[in-house]
Amino acid sequence: MEVNQLRLAIREHVAKNKDRYVDFLRNLIRFDSSVIDQGLGGNEGPVQAWLAEHLESMGCEVHVFEPDNSKMQGHRSFNPRHNYEGRPNVVAYWNGTNGDKHRSLVLNGHIDTMPMGEESAWSVHPLDGVIRDGYIIGRGAVDMKGGLATAVMAMAVLQEIGVPLKGDVILQSVVDEEGGGNGTLAACIEGYLGDGAVILEATDFQICRASRGAWQFGVRVPGKATHSSMKAEGSNAIDNAYEIIKVLYELERKWLLTKHHSVMSKQTVVIGSINGGFGPSAIPDMCEIQGVIEYLPAHMSSGEEILASGFEVQREVEEAVAIACQGHPFLKDHPVQIEWLQDCPPFYTAAQEPLVQLAAETSEGIFGQARVGGFMGGCDGRHFQYNRVPVVVWGPGDPVLAHAADERMKIEDYLKAIEFLAEFIVAWTEKRKECAGNGERQE
């Protein structure tokens, strides 16, 4: 079918069946699938069972499995001590007519949500999926049951209008993304990969081909305790910590001047907490600060994108702090201790990748423009990059509304997203495999 004919057929079918597609998203929202204690536990089981049954009714080959901590242990992005009993991933296959030779596509979405928060802050119950003023309101409407529903309904459209796909489509409905991403890590370890991947996080239709990394750190800064009346005899750990904070912000200023990227925000330092001292009349002997480095996956140099590394950031921080300690009267003999905590590495897909180019072409056809940029927060794109699978993040919804009270998806945007994704699926899977990434495991 010619592209314009396909686009028209998809648009007309979505318009005719929009109530059914909206009801599907509302059904997902009505399940409480929130994580517990930042992902150590979660409530995803019932909605995953419902979704697996629905996918089977569509004729999919469905795989249901719980993430295995023993298999994930040792991977850089693994978050330990999370319990997955009753919290399975669901993977569904739509097998193409010539899958061995044509490109396959992974559609990734996480079923877990953040907790609902104070219900009094909502104008409706967070799990009712209320429709009001052209929006669906409910926890997960944006982050990211809206994106996951887009994937399932896009495949439903293609089935219902009778479009055969040449390549395979693999849907990953994963758990525990909000707790750090073990669900997608587990799916990749089990081999549910393809020649390209789309993560359907809310981007307001921007095609995101990269994200910043986020590396949390802690610094223990020593001092020498004395009575406040004998200040000169001691060394104030809070004052010393302030000197370290100034060093980190000086490093940030250097990065702001020297490291930039065409589609990404700048590399930054955030100090998130400070804890020290034990009363107003004592010089403290220890102060602890914690923060996060939001770092770039690549930076521009002479018009080219140069890949970067979180370990490069680690080295720069440690060197800057060490130099500062050497020039400090107390810290030169009592150096600080830096601990690198959880790291959420970035992902990066080159602008010339066929996945990015085809997404841009499809966007221009559907929306009249293509916005290519970077994803602000952490996401699961890194797991596909580890496996040499080109990946973009793209989806409906305003990301500002994620995690918010009265989280809501504009119905018009949701339906338009189904149109885009259905067309993109056909365009991607009709190409031969040599035009895509190789999908080899690299973790």
What does this structure look like?
With 443 residues, this protein is of the alpha+beta class. It contains eleven helices and 21 strands. α9 (354-367) crosses α11. The chain starts with a helix and ends in a 14-residue tail after the last helix.
Mean pLDDT: 95
CATH architectural designation of the largest domain: 3-Layer(aba) Sandwich
Oligomer: single chain
Proportion of residues in extended strands: 15-25%
Structural category:
alpha+beta
CATH superfamily of the largest domain: Zn peptidases
Q: Could you write a compact summary of the structure shown?
A:
The protein has 443 residues and is α+β, with helices and mostly antiparallel strands. The protein is built from eleven helices and 21 strands.
Topology (SSEs and partners):
Elements lengths: L2 H14 L1 H12 L5 E2 L4 E2 L2 H13 L3 E5 L3 H4 L16 E6 L10 E6 L19 E3 L2 E3 L7 H16 L8 E6 L7 H8 L7 E3 L7 E5 L1 E10 L3 E2 L9 H22 L9 E9 L5 E2 L2 E10 L2 E4 L2 E4 L2 H17 L10 E8 L9 H14 L4 E4 L5 H6 L4 E3 L14 E3 H19 L14
Parallel strand pairs: 5-8, 5-9, 9-20, 10-19
Antiparallel strand pairs: 1-2, 3-4, 4-8, 6-7, 7-21, 11-15, 11-18, 12-14, 13-15, 16-17
Helix pairs in contact: 1-11, 2-5, 5-11, 7-8, 9-11
Q: Which features would summarize this protein structure in a list?
A:
alpha+beta, Aminopeptidase, Alpha-Beta Plaits, 6-stranded mixed sheet, 4-stranded antiparallel sheet, elongated, disordered C terminus
